Amino acid sequence: MHKILVTGGTGFIGSHTVVELLNAGYDVDIIDNLCNSKAAVIDQIEKITSKKPTLYKLDLLEREKLNEIFENNQYDTVLHFAGLKAVAESVENPLLYYHANLGTTINLVESMLAHNVNKIIFSSSATVYGEQDSPECFENMQTGSGITNPYGRTKYMIEEILKDVCIAHPDFSVTLLRYFNPIGNHPSGLIGEDPNGIPNNIMPVITRVATGKLSELQIFGNDYDTPDGTCQRDFIHVEDLARGHTCAINHIHPGIQIYNLGTGRPNSVLELVNAFGKISGHEIPYTITNRRPGDLAAVWANPSRANTELGWKAKLTIEDAIRDTLKFLNLRK
Ligand code: UD1
Q1: What is the pTM of this model?
Q2: In angstroms, what is the span from residue 227 Cα to ligand 1's centroid?
């Protein structure tokens, strides 16, 4: 069976994908610098799958150590999740983001090319679409303009870099997976989203409120042109997202492939908050505050290409994601 290298494999989406890969029979090595995750995730992965992936604690900026790993292993495919993703931090410290996201990807691809590893699946984001005329995103839309922060621009730039590598190396295969808004966790409750420090994304903020670590949620604006005035997003269960990667591995071919991984169904921030209150039995206290700069009113995927070409479809709902999150938090009724 193919051996796969997963960068960022102890993080939120990475760890769920590692579980999926191990269950599908792949041999998995992980590289992670553990800047926003814990080595103990490996033990949780082992509890779920009865298999223990090898973890190399390494920053992808450490070129020599990275090359050594490629010298000592024969990888078939690289899944590249590693990167920084806090939007506000990227505005304050753009060079950190360009180093961490672009520098690491360039090192990684150079090492791959030097060792004849020619398949990469990259964790891109719906952020590359920027502001469009329509909230529904299609892969063939123009990307790159109207991105509101350096984090988002790193995702766009990496996509462009990988496209150029494909032109220069016709045997190289790149799959860009554009994630929408991942939530939820493995149904065992053994792994989940556990960011260090103050979270930025909506679900970890809700869970901090549910566990009493934050007194209330601030909803950033209820005067958007949406059905209830709060923003609409395409919240996708991380289990569906993880499965998207195993489907994508089966459809790798030379050149560039791009897929949206989303449900195609928008839900509002208020709908998510109310559903959490209903399912958990604990209302989430919130106040409505000003809009957050850079937020778009509504963004969702058109997932038809992934549905048709990869045979992949998101199956789970926000209610499933909330139930699994409660299990991770040990708050299940
Ligand atoms: C953001 C990034 C996206 C990135 C994703 C994952 C932008 C504009 N967005 O998506 O690129 O891929 O995170 O890291 O670059 N909200 C609140 N209160 C909170 C937190 C969030 O009301 O405390 C609202 C936001 O205003 C937004 C929605 O919840 O409407 C979702 O926010 P968030 O989870 O941060 O995701 P995005 O901004 O969609």
Answers
A1: 0.97
A2: 18
